[in-house]
Amino acid sequence: MSADENAPSQTGLSRQTLGMGLGFIGIAIFGGTLPATRLAVTSLDPFFITVGRAAASGLLSAALLLVLRRRWPNARQIRTMMICIVTIVFGFPGLMALAMLTVPAAHGGVVLGILPLTTAAAASLILGERPSVRFWLLAVLGTTVVVAFALRDSGGGIAIGDVYLFLAAISTSIGYVFSADLSHEMPGWEVISWILVLALPLTLPLAIWLWPANPGAVSTGAWIAFAYVSVFSMFVGFFAWNAGLVMGGVARVSQVQLLQTFVTLGLSAVVNGEHVGPSTIAVAALVVAIVAAGRNARIAQKVPEAG
Keywords on this record (predicted)? Predict the structure, then answer.
């Protein structure tokens, strides 16, 4: 641990403490995405929510990049960002919105609680990282628990909402890996900003085309929820999260992510009025425990070949 991490800032708090605080703010924002989406789809088309949130955050990103005069990414970076557009901008939000039409947000929070493990698995396939046998055993165990939970909640069969959630997890895991790889070359906030800006030629026209025919008929709660996922889930949350990782250290602050499932469960009860029973909380705690153990399992980096 470096001395700078514990050095007091102008507020009197150490950088580590501020980093943990910002990290939690980011996770709290992300934890509200499922409940807000669940509320939004009560009055808004899920496809409009998908492209609308990306268009709104893309315009905010464009303004920020212009003000800060950031240099355009190179051709190779743009090609990687195109993969992120498919997976993060369209894949995950779209599949999640479709899932929220049929399953509760609390249910989705438990299923998506396995994201850190699926992301690590994607990294092993895409970046050549080599997780240990212990990691793979925990990944299989975590997946089994989530599948069993989904089967129990759907009366013994896999509901279409669960299929959407599993596909959403795969999509966003791929996107996270490619965007994280780009974050070695530019700040994380700039990566997501460029991804959203590059998607604007698609998202903005589609958002205008899918705009509700009668906006006044849409409930106020749905519009507020749409604004939340547009401004906070896809924009502000990334700033708090990435700033927290920088200030407090990636390894330390990233552990706060384990709290996201419980934030989603709490907000599902408050925002959506869902009943979160003891069994759901118990399964969520088990998934989080497995994820925590999996994150501590050894993952070796790919060794470049000589030559």
Answer: Membrane, Transmembrane, Transmembrane helix
pLDDT in tens, 172-191: 889 888 887 888 888 878 98
Structure-token pair, residue 139? 């990944």
Whether the full predicted model's pTM is greater than 0.85, yes or no, is no
| Count of Cβ atoms closer than 10 Å to residue 210 Cβ | 17
Average pLDDT rounded to a whole number, residues 221-250: 84
* Residue carrying the six token digits 């001395």: 3
Could you tell me which of 74, 27, 64 has the C-alpha nearest to residue 193?
64
Residue 255 in this model has a pLDDT that exceeds 90: no
Dihedral sign for Cα atoms in the order 269, 105, 82, 52: negative
Q: How far is CA 26 from CA 30, 31, 241, 256, in A?
A: 6, 9, 5, 9
Q: Which residues contact 20 (CB under 8 A, 6 or more apart)?
A: 244, 248, 252, 253, 256
Q: Would you say residue 9 lies in a domain?
A: no
Report residue 241 as tokens: 């999260």
- Determine, yes or no, domain membership for 5: no
Token output for 85: 């557009």
Asked if residue 229 is part of any domain, the answer here is yes
For 32, which DSSP code?
T
Q: Identify each DSSP E strand in 86-210 by its residue range.
A: 130-131
Alpha-carbon 252 to chain mean position: 18
Tell whether 1 is covered by a domain: no
Predicted confidence at residue 132, as pLDDT, reads 76
Q: Residue 205 belongs to what domain range? A: 16-210+222-298
**CA atoms within 13 Å, Cβ hemisphere of 183:** 17
Cα distances (Å, whole numbers) of residue 15 to 155, 242, 259: 48, 14, 21
Quickly count: other Cβ atoms within 10 Å of residue 81's Cβ: 25
In terms of Cβ atoms closer than 10 Å to its own Cβ (0-12, 13-18, 19+), residue 238 is buried
User: Model confidence at 306, in pLDDT bands (50, 70, 90)?
Assistant: very low
- Would you say the C-alpha torsion 297, 265, 28, 185 has a positive or negative sign? positive
